[in-house]
Please model this.
Amino acid sequence: MNDKYEIIEDRDDIPSNPTNNPRIDDLINARFSRRGFFKGLMATSAVVGAGIATRGVAKAQSASTLTFKSIPQKITETHAVAEGYQADVLIRWGDKVVSDAPAFVPGQVDATAQNKQFGYNCDYVGYMPLPVGSNSSDHGLLCISHEYTNAELMWPGLKDSMGASQEQALHEIAAHGHSIVEIKKTGGKWEIIEDSKYARRISALDTEMAITGPAAGHDRLKTSSDASGTRVIGTLNNCAGGKTPWGTVLISEENFNGYFGGDIAKTSEERNYKRLGIEPDSWYSWVKYFDRFNVEKEPNEPNKFGWMVEIDPYDPTSMPKKRTSLGRFKHEGATVIINKDNSVVAYSGDDQRFDYLYKFVATNKYNPNDRAANMDILDDGTLYVAKFHEDGTLDWMPLIFGQGPLTTENDFTSQADILIETRRAADLLGATQMDRPEDVEPNPVNGKVYVMLTNNSKRKEGNAPNPRAANPHGHVLELTPPGGRGQDADHTADRFTWDIMLAAGNPSNADDKAVYHPAAESWLSCPDNMAIDHRGRLWISSDGAQGSDIPDGMWATDVDGPGRALTKFFFACPVGAEMCGPEFTPDGTTLFLAVQHPADGSSYDAPSTRWPDFQASLPPRPSVVAVTKSDGGEIAG
Model:
């Protein structure tokens, strides 16, 4: 999720979930009074008003397995990384991707050039080893999503993207999507391999995509440019993502609603579009120039967005596929784990205040010996939504046409309707409203699932007797499937248990009611994306921490043992920037990080930073950095 749209999303949140479904704050409050905030963590005097306090914690209990020393939490014009590490800029907005890409020219408006260059705000980063199927940690493909554009930082004289000309709008469209580059580590340094046969730009300008699964071909997806309802040009607002064991990447379509405009009352999709926050005023000028973004002219076009997109990075000629079985909402990403019975399970969050947490279980089993047999496995299966209970359990409720309220009486005529209007289907099932569920990832080491809940400033005081009724800092949930640790965990089960890993905020501020290990070295705000290293430790990135006068960046913590929730600050973003991406190489010796929208809140003419180049003639440029340890060892120590 990007903080550029904070004000717009605030406006969008009010009407978008009209239900009285149980909210996560009510359930957390009930758990405070029943079992306590933590399970197995001997801390915390930082929770004020929750009736929890622990004293006399032994020094040995505060030991972290992470060996780096936390850096200062100070916002500056540049990045910072822990002592003993180096962060090298690997690729920046405008850098060459495909072989005939021209050089970057500051301030230039050229959609054709941009369509061959590295796109704008870089979010998801996936490392795919070369050759396919290997665990190579010094040669692979880097797959990076481009979430959105800041026109005011791309060209002079603009206040926002609504003021962009038609030529600038085309350039912005080309800057969206995804980049695939080949990288290799030589002499301890990563470099881009030029003229790679794998290099590819996937954009909203001209990349054709297939729509697959139950919603493919439905009348509600048919448009003037595609009477079949099975094709679409491009993908929008690609936020986080995930990788599959068969060697593909999954990229999300998150805040796609902001790209469309027009009067939704003049379409047959008014209820659908209202629930997703499509309004007359678009966030972009595109609607003024291109009919596909005007719902009055192309009333079904928005139904082609809001899906998870699967890409085969090893085949640059392959067509990306929008997998409708995984549902349509503001996906933050989707992360896949292979269950002990070879079932394929994918977790996903709907990144909006008061929306829901989902998982998908494929019908067919994963075949580790036949990559081709797995390539369309995400087209058939069951989508579930989470309902949390006060006793520390949660139920995964299936969204299946004909079951419960998901019938013709509620205007669902097929499974396609359920998936096109996933939010409304989940509303009717009574799913639990969450505080912006973003990244959701299973931990293969301990078998648990971690959920980043970024914040919820919209929760009103008095809605529940909850010490965090207003939640500007967010928290981290821990879900436990039955069956045991690691590979014994059953991710297909209908009932899990849940606990809170940590509650973000400043422990020095009693009003924040923050919860960490008592020996935590640093505090965080607005957890967003995450990575889990091969030892099972949690690396947390943030989006919005600068609103609390600390930089966005990367924190790390153990999830088990005496160092549980002992947070340490590893990497700081420059002013205005959000921390995204986090991705380790298989051997844990490189951590790739995406730094997007540096200088956000300023302009091309007067940027708050020119990171990463710091030349007066250059604008700030979203970039991916490769972090390595100076001695070449594991990042986590």
Remarks:
- The first helix runs from residue 6 to 16.
